[in-house]
Amino acid sequence: YAMLLSLIFLIVLVAAVVGFVFRHEIKTNFESNLNLALRDYNVTADRHSEAVDTIQRTLHCCGVQNYSDWEKTEYFTQRGIPQSCCKNQDDCSEGDLKDLSKAKLIVFVDGCFFLVTSTMESKMSVVAGISFGIACFQLIGIVLACCLSQYITNNQYEMV
């Protein structure tokens, strides 16, 4: 049991170190995937489009760097900026969403990439604290399992 807990502890430790070391690559991959999701937005009405809409509504953002990122997409040429970027759903008309100068007044102008990464970084202290607590419990479990094993071994020889 102590060996199993030690193995799990080492796996978690390695995952934490790898996540910390490669955090910049994770950001770069997220940014490129967000750009791909914008490019392919609503072509097939898939989960990626729903995820973009959810991010934009929840974080009150629009596009990757800013709202003008939508201008480069096929969706913009057909329908303009998506409704999920609107500050107030009642004030957004399709005509206004096709014109960037008018859209600037009715949509969120901040990009989602910075908001998502800053939200993730702000929550990292909570994740690190929980992980540290779990690691402490695992170490206590390893020590107690070794003590129990030692106690069982010592008592077995005394009983004879």
CATH topology-level fold name: Cd81 Antigen, Extracellular Domain, Chain: A
Sheet with most strands: none
DSSP summary: helix tally: 7
What integer is the average pLDDT? 85
Radius of gyration: 25 Å
Name the CATH class: Mainly Alpha
Coarse morphology? rod-shaped
Protein name: Tetraspanin-7
Pfam family, one: Tetraspanin
Membrane topology: Multi-pass membrane protein
GO cellular component, one term: plasma membrane
Explain what you see.
The protein has helices spanning 2-21, 23-39, 47-59, 74-79, 94-98, 100-106, 112-159. It is mostly helical and 160 residues long. The protein has a single domain (1-158), classed as Tetraspanin (Cd81 Antigen, Extracellular Domain, Chain: A, Orthogonal Bundle), CATH 1.10.1450. The longest helix has 48 residues, at 112-159. The two termini are 26 Å apart. The model has no long low-confidence stretch (mean pLDDT 85).
Question: What's this, in brief?
Answer:
The protein is built from 7 helices and no strands. It has 160 residues and is an all-alpha fold. The protein is rod-shaped and about 85 Å long.
